[in-house]
Task: inverse folding
């Protein structure tokens, strides 16, 4: 374990790993990631792996588009095939207000240069004959959206970080952060002390716990979301399908299994990673209705993970006003995996240059909560 | 020694009604109460599927629904555990190749 | 949703004994996955040990029938063909019956899900014809199907010994029982039953590989040393069409984990077991366990445990004083566990804080363990065929065929100069070159007609006359000849000079660990070698334990591989989380409209 680090990243999930990887790639030395359990033990390891660019605000679309660029280069850059597949995202609209939103969003997304289009119900039926299009008014379709295996991506980053000379500590818990005169001087862990001037809090829904060690308030809370996975079948489903109206998403993994989840009506806290039978019941009903061919497919496993929810369901990426060089990247609200490569790059730029260079993430600063909140609508 | 045991020093095997089932289109002898894997085994059919990644032959292994070795395509549905599925008259059974097709 | 005072999961000896007691006092439901109660008893044709209270001298399937008769006369709800898929919050059991999911609530729960067979990965262990011993019993004793013709049994525990006897009863041939340890695992009487039928029990032997393309056609077995490594050169092939694995059982703890019961790794009890007290109560006060799930033992102890758990539940729910009966059962258990064969169970239970009264044990004395210098041709041509090319080629009169060209050659090594011309001319490739002196290594020359041609200093495999791997060896030189029969000279341990008859490049033959995802031992070891030793990370990289069986079959083997390679004991390794459903279930099972 290193005694001194230039930057300590707390949290070895996809966000923390991407930040550390980007720092090392930009030639920063002595970067240290601290993970309290194993690699991908937290939300990343429980995530469904969708990668989409169809968002409702221009800055979010830009950030997501940058992320997709980096996912396209991931295997070359980071060194592992992470089952990245650009099979598209299909968003389904059932109501007039959804139709209005979709049409408005697609116009805006196109103006940002995204390869997105509106599909009529008939076009959807033609493209995906196994989807029950009854009551579907239209769809929003982006071919360059896709999905990947988050667990492999997380592990790939960890391996790359170690290869590039960074330290990736697992099974190590941060117990305190040393601060003098609003300057960070070190991080205390249950395995020893690391002196550092820069700390990144990428602890997901536990980011507030880290912040509270030095009196920084981070308005994020954990929310339990459930996922199930079926047995593998031969590939038939290209896109990740989101159905806001019926409240679910589903994708077919590289392995062949169908992975899907929904937003619970009254989600449990992120501390509670239990499972409910109601989730299986509700998903079964929806799948059989919308994908009749799935009627007899077998569910193999269910699990749950925590979304790190922010008040407006958008990430919080900023440097503390109170503690110098305390940077946080959290509140991803279920979209951390897909944004991680671009967020990693942006945060690394913030650390090295004092500001972002490649992608503007100023809309994700903390002060937006005092100025006024515009909630991201496209959330399951 | 293949097929069904007729005389046994300890056990009496009384078989129920004969039903017609079909393996790869051919009729196979089967009796009500038997599982698909059992009826196939009695007919000397041990290779129940070919595995998706390596294309290796696979057959019955645990016989009690605790592994995935005996998955077959039964009446058009892939990934059916043949060790836990009882035979039914007219059943169409096929060896599964790869992971099974839904479309 | 229906609510019961007591729900029993599993209708084997433990579950049935529990339901038998519960049915007299409280509202009870017993759930079982099979279409009749009885568990493993229904497959057993042999007479059981024990006492008359616990059905001694009764055959297993008859014990099951007697229990079923008793329980059916009591106000107990029996749900067979009902697969429990998970334990959920608020004391809820979810199960699937006839393709439909349903739920019940319990005040008290007895989990008696028993055990499953440990696996043993060897090359081709995934071939059809390799079965768990239980599968063979299911086919043979439950359905009356001949599972095969010629059998090899791996493991000499009671299940293996009983299985051998049962197979012989149906008239099929059991070629051998192999046992890696230096003593028979099961009861001596069971072993003697098999032995007197002429079934050899090969101690310190293991299976190396199964042979066959589509299904099993044979097996290679070999001796092992004290560390269970195969002793090179002891491999032999036996012709069998069925291989039965009976290397022990391990408790099925998934549901207890989901019911938030604490699990401990106690190898003496079978591996991971739920922590429980003397009265079978787990760390969740509403949940009890009994039978093989709590420790791998016999049907008799399972029944007593089932009774104990049931009596405690009756006390809890109905406030009836059964202390006298409970202490009687505890005493009975202690007696059953007092023999030397129960030593492991006793020490395992002690680790959980349950002390079984000691009885003087007889001492065992362990059995003692038993254990010209120039290059010349070796001619292996014994068949009478019309050929004398070797005789003609030899300029030194060392090979004589004689007047009748069909006579096999006679060779005089004293006259041989080692020129090796005969090797290159023999049409049958039946002549080899050998040089063996005091040094531990010998030289062997092998006629070779394959590509790629080996190069000097390459490491290759020496193969025996049946094409089986014998040893690693090093190529010394390759002599090319115009007729394209080249001679590959290799350096190999002296003891193999008469065994190796072919060389080949090392093959990537590797036993499968995970049937669902087709993952080999090698793949797992490579990940560990790359520095990733956390079970969860290995799982994510390779997909082991993520298939439809949920890791039931492979988890222990993988933990074993991690433990062996890292030196960390299994008890210190993280072993992942059990996720529902524990058995695969169709979406359609959840269709509300179809529900009763």
Result:
């Amino acid at each position: 374990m290193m005694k001194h680090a230039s930057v300590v990243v707390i949290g070895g999930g996809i966000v923390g790993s991407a930040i550390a990887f980007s720092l090392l790639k930009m030639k920063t030395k002595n970067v240290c990631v601290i993970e309290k359990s194993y690699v991908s033990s937290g939300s990343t390891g429980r995530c469904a792996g969708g990668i989409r660019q169809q968002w409702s605000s221009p800055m979010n679309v830009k950030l997501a588009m940058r992320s997709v660029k980096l996912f396209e280069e991931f295997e070359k850059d980071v060194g592992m095939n992470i089952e990245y597949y650009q099979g598209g995202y299909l968003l389904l609209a059932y109501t007039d207000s959804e139709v209005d939103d979709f049409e408005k969003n697609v116009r805006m997304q196109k103006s940002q240069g995204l390869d997105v289009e509106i599909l009529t119900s008939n076009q959807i039926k033609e493209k995906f004959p196994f989807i029950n299009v009854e009551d579907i008014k239209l769809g929003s379709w982006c071919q360059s959206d896709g999905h990947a295996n988050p667990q492999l991506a997380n592990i790939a980053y960890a391996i790359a970080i170690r290869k590039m000379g960074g330290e990736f500590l697992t099974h190590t818990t941060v117990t305190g952060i040393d601060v003098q005169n609003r300057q960070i001087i070190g991080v205390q862990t249950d395995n020893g002390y690391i002196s550092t001037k820069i700390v990144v809090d990428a602890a997901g829904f536990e980011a507030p716990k880290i912040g509270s060690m030095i009196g920084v308030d981070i308005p994020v809370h954990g929310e339990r979301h459930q996922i199930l996975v079926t047995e593998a079948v031969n590939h038939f489903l290209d896109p990740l399908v989101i159905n806001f109206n019926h409240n679910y998403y589903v994708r077919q993994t590289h392995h062949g299994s169908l992975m899907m989840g929904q937003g619970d009506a009254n989600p449990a806290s992120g501390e509670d990673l239990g499972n409910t039978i109601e989730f299986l019941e509700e998903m079964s009903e929806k799948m059989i209705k919308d994908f009749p061919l799935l009627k007899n497919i077998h569910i193999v496993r269910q699990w749950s993970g925590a979304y790190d929810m922010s008040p407006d369901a958008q990430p919080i990426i900023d440097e503390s006003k109170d503690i110098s060089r305390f940077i946080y990247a959290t509140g991803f609200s279920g979209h951390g995996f897909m944004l991680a490569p671009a967020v990693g790059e942006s945060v690394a730029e913030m650390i090295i240059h004092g500001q972002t260079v490649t992608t503007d993430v100023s809309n994700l600063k903390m002060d937006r909560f005092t100025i006024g909140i515009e909630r991201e609508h496209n959330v399951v | 020694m293949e097929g069904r045991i007729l005389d046994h020093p300890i056990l009496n095997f009384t078989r129920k009604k004969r039903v017609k089932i079909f393996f790869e289109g051919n009729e196979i002898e089967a009796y009500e109460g038997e599982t698909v894997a059992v009826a196939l085994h009695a007919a000397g059919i041990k290779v129940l599927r070919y595995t998706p990644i390596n294309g290796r032959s696979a057959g019955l292994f645990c016989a009690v629904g605790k592994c995935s070795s005996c998955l077959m395509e039964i009446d058009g549905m892939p990934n059916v555990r043949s060790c836990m599925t009882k035979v039914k008259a007219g059943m169409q059974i096929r060896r599964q190749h790869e992971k099974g097709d839904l479309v | 949703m229906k609510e019961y005072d007591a729900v029993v999961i599993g209708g084997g000896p433990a579950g049935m004994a529990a339901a038998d007691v519960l049915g007299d006092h409280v509202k009870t439901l017993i759930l079982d996955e099979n279409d009749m109660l009885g568990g493993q008893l229904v497959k057993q044709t042999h007479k059981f040990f024990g006492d008359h209270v616990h059905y001694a001298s009764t055959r297993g399937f008859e014990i099951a029938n007697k229990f079923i008769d008793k329980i059916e006369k009591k106000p107990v709800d029996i749900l067979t063909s009902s697969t429990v898929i998970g334990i959920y919050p608020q004391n809820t059991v979810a199960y699937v019956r006839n393709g439909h999911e349903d739920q019940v609530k319990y005040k008290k729960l007895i989990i008696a899900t028993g055990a499953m067979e440990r696996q043993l990965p060897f090359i081709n262990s995934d071939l059809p014809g390799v079965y768990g011993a239980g599968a063979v019993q299911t086919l043979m004793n439950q359905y009356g199907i001949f599972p095969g013709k010629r059998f090899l049994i791996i493991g000499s525990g009671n299940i293996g010994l009983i299985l051998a006897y049962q197979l012989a009863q149906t008239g099929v041939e059991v070629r051998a029982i192999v046992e890696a340890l230096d003593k028979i695992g099961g009861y001596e009487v069971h072993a003697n039953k098999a032995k007197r039928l002429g079934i050899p029990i090969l101690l310190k032997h293991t299976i190396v590989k199964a042979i066959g393309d589509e299904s099993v056609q044979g097996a290679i077995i070999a001796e092992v040393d004290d560390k269970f490594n195969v002793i090179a050169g002891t491999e032999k092939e036996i012709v069998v069409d069925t291989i039965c694995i009976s290397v022990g059982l391990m408790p099925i703890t998934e549901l207890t984990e989901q019911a938030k019961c604490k699990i401990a790794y106690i190898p003496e009890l079978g591996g991971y077991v739920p922590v429980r007290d003397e009265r079978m109560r787990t760390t969740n006060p509403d949940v009890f366990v009994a039978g093989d799930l709590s420790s791998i033992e016999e049907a008799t102890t399972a029944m007593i445990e089932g009774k104990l758990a049931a009596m405690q539940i009756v006390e809890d729910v109905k406030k009836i004083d059964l202390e006298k009966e409970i202490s009687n059962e505890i005493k009975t258990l202690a007696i059953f566990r007092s023999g030397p064969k129960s030593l492991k169970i006793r020490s395992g239970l002690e680790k959980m804080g349950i002390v079984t009264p000691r009885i003087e044990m007889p001492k065992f004395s362990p059995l003692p363990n038993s254990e010209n210098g120039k290059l010349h041709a070796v001619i292996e041509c014994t068949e009478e065929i019309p050929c004398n090319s070797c005789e003609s080629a030899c300029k030194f009169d060392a090979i004589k065929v004689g007047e009748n060209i069909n006579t096999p050659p006679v060779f005089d090594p004293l006259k041989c100069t080692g020129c090796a011309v005969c090797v290159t001319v023999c049409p049958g490739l039946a002549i080899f070159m050998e040089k063996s002196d005091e040094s531990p290594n010998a030289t062997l020359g092998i006629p070779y007609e394959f590509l790629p041609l080996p190069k000097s200093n390459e490491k290759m495999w020496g193969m025996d006359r049946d094409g089986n791997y014998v040893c690693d060896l090093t190529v010394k030189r390759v002599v090319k000849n115009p007729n394209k029969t080249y001679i590959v000279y290799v350096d190999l341990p002296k003891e193999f000079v008469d065994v190796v008859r072919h060389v080949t490049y090392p093959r990537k033959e590797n036993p499968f660990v995970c049937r669902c995802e087709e993952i080999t031992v090698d793949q797992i070891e490579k990940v560990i070698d790359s520095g990733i030793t956390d079970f969860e990370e290995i799982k994510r990289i390779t997909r082991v334990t993520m298939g439809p069986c949920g890791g039931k079959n492979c988890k222990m083997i993988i933990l074993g591989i991690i433990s062996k390679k890292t030196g960390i004991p299994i008890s210190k390794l993280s072993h992942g989380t059990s996720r529902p459903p524990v058995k695969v279930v169709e979406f359609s099972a959840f269709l509300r409209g179809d529900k009763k």
